[in-house]
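[job 4471] stage=fold_predict status=RUNNING
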Amino acid sequence: MSSTEVELEIFHHTATATAKRQKYHHYHNRNKSLLPGLPDDIAQICLSLVHPSTLYSVCHSWRRLIYSPSFPPFLSIYGIFLSTKEVDQASNRSRSIEFSCFEPISCKWLSLPPPPLEPPHQFLFHHPSFISRKLPIQSVSVSGNLVLLAATADQFLPALSRPLIFNPLSQRWTYGPPFAAPRRWCVAGASRGVVYVASGIGSHYNTMLARSVEKWDLKNINNNYLRSRSWKWEKMGGLKDGKFSREAIDAIGWRGKLCMVNVKGDAAKEGKIYDVKTDLWSEMPEGMLVGWRGPAASMDEETIYMVDESKGVLRKYDSDRDMWVEIVVDDRLKGAQQTAAAGGKVCVLCGNGGDIFVVDVAAQPPKLWVVNTPAGFEAVNIHILPRMSHTVH
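[job 4471] inference complete, writing structure tokens
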């Protein structure tokens, strides 16, 4: 199988039941039926059972169909990028960010619509005072949306006063409710459609902020009236100290809990688990903590995958035995920066943000291939979300 053929298998997301419930739109030549002899609504149900890459290669009417709102959306890689052309290590000039998605059927990177420019989003990523450190840009994926939560602006101030949200199906940006206290970095995660931020640093260190926890429920995201009335940040039970404020931390949603460690890599660390239902904190199991040696992500909030960034090993957590189980070993996974998981695939952002490795963990044995990032850009965050709807000519 060629590399292109493998890439076309990246994220096939079958959802026949969803297709039956959705309204039917016709993005094809009205003088030509999708399947001769069948009404188009029945034809769409039949065609939703076929792999999108096959439909894409047959005819234009089917190609238009797979990108229409009525077709079950397959998954794509979304990335937040910084232009490598703007790097100036001698200054603290902020850099604009770019948003793109890798469309696995056509194997192309597509630009997202530009976000609102109120004000223009310019983030500090490098600064001469911190030569060996990159200032984080934090985002989460929740309920099919990309949500930006924290970053650093000029003068080392928080760059975002409220979350910035992108919905792939509508291709629209919106703002979330204002933060009670904007952060430059923090603990960030999501579970069951709710976004959580905790600890971290605002414009300066503050003990109360370093121990605080807040949540925001994205329900009613598609209803402007209810959204304006119900969207708010709610204060939750705080941490006992500020040990999780030192750097940007991913809180991994897992079985109704958020799992996190306060230090990256092989260094000694502390691990906490937050129960989103009871609003209580507990210590991380010993086996989970000891084996947590790199970026992690959960698949459907059921299985946690983690890359040992020093050894290049992808592992999954076995809660029954409290241990990490090896999935695949590959030197190219060394130096992993971030992971994302969905649809039976684990995506790993490695090195200097120039390569994304995709591991098909549902295959036996697991398959691994590379998706190159757009030329002239380095990726700082990746997510897996539904593809964007658009018109194909």
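[job 4471] summary: The domain at 75-295+379-386 is CATH 2.120.10.80 (Neuraminidase).
[job 4471] exit 0
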